[in-house]
Design brief:
A two-stranded antiparallel sheet has the order 1-2. The radius of gyration is 22 Å and the shape is globular. The longest helix is centred in the N-terminal third of the chain and has 21 residues. It is mainly alpha-helical and 312 residues long. The relative contact order is 0.14. The protein is built from twelve helices and four strands; from the N terminus they run αααβαααβαααββααα.
């Protein structure tokens, strides 16, 4: 047998190195549960994004409906306005939650609105806003969701009044990983980034009769919510209009509006019909510098004069 040429061996060696490097570069971020990623994921899920205010049961005998801790992530809140539609179980239960999903499948649902089975999520879930997150933040959320207590809770099959696909097609999407996280030195862009994660525009913008955002009136308030919980509340105007919005608010007054909810005494009372679905208790845990950044961003949006009657 002739000896294998050294040049051929060298070529194979180079190909192996090239393939290995290519594989390493192309590999996705995984949800490895290091402490910094879990801390970031928890902050985004339970504070900025307030995911649990839709994916848990809430106690609306208290102000702002604090979540019932034993239900965290189990889903099951109904949205009859859109048909038979309930929030998903996002605990790592293998049979009824996301325990059998891969990291990439969970990320795709969060940022692109596509379920593991290929179904399109209805955009009551603001995945069109989450799509603007950095890849690292998306996978930090994935990592944290995997640490939740698994809860067996089968969500009823949905029967939508309108198909989800055309609703999703109204939005433009970037590939996961296309959006960088802004520099912490840029408070306005940081505030915009955080406001997207909080999906603030989704609740603080008036809607058409078919529930589409009136984009020209972004942040002007006017969305009526809470009907199925026994009260009506209209989202306020948070544009910098000086007469009907937050134009005269100082940074301090804006931040304190949230941080007061770090004390249970601010929400452990029965407001009767003067309640809100605004997740004050979760958002109140945001870092002061992040709240200041959101304030800085809101001061840059178009001021719109739009008087709101909050409770009626």
């Amino acid at each position: 047998m002739k000896p294998f040429p050294l040049t051929a061996l060298f070529c194979i060696f180079l190909l192996a190195i090239t393939f290995s490097c290519h594989q390493k570069a192309a590999s996705p971020i995984t949800s490895a549960a290091d402490s910094s990623r879990l801390e970031r994921g928890k902050y985004l899920v339970e504070t900025v994004g307030s995911c649990m205010h839709c994916h848990s049961q809430r106690d609306f005998t208290k102000f702002s409906g604090p979540i019932k801790e034993e239900t965290k992530g189990m889903g099951g809140i109904g949205y009859p306005k859109f048909g038979v539609l309930f929030s998903s179980n996002i605990t790592p239960d293998a049979a009824t939650g996301i325990g059998s999903w891969t990291d990439d499948e969970i990320a795709r649902a969060i940022a692109l609105g596509i379920r593991k089975n290929g179904d399109t999520l209805f955009p009551i879930m603001p995945y069109y806003e989450y799509n603007k997150m950095s890849k690292e933040d998306i996978y930090s959320i994935v990592a944290y969701l995997r640490t939740l207590k698994p809860i067996s809770n089968k969500i009823p099959d949905r029967k939508l009044k309108a198909p989800a696909g055309p609703e999703r097609d109204r939005f433009a999407f970037s590939p996961i990983g296309a959006n960088p996280e802004p520099s912490s030195k840029d408070s306005i862009q940081t505030g915009k980034y955080l406001a997207n994660i909080g999906a603030c525009v989704s609740c603080h913008t008036p809607k058409t009769d078919d529930d589409h955002l009136i984009v020209d009136s972004s942040y002007a308030g006017g969305d009526v919510m809470g009907q199925k919980f026994g009260f009506h509340v209209t989202s306020p105007n948070i544009t910098p209009d000086e007469t009907t919005g937050i134009g005269k608010w100082t940074e301090t007054s804006f931040v304190s509006k949230f941080t007061v909810f770090r004390q249970a005494s601010s929400y452990e009372f029965d407001p009767h019909t003067k309640n809100t679905i605004m997740p004050w208790i979760m958002l109140g845990q945001m870092k002061d510098e992040d709240l200041k950044a959101v304030y800085a961003y809101l001061k840059t949006v178009k001021p719109i004069q739009h008087q709101i009657e909050k409770w009626h």
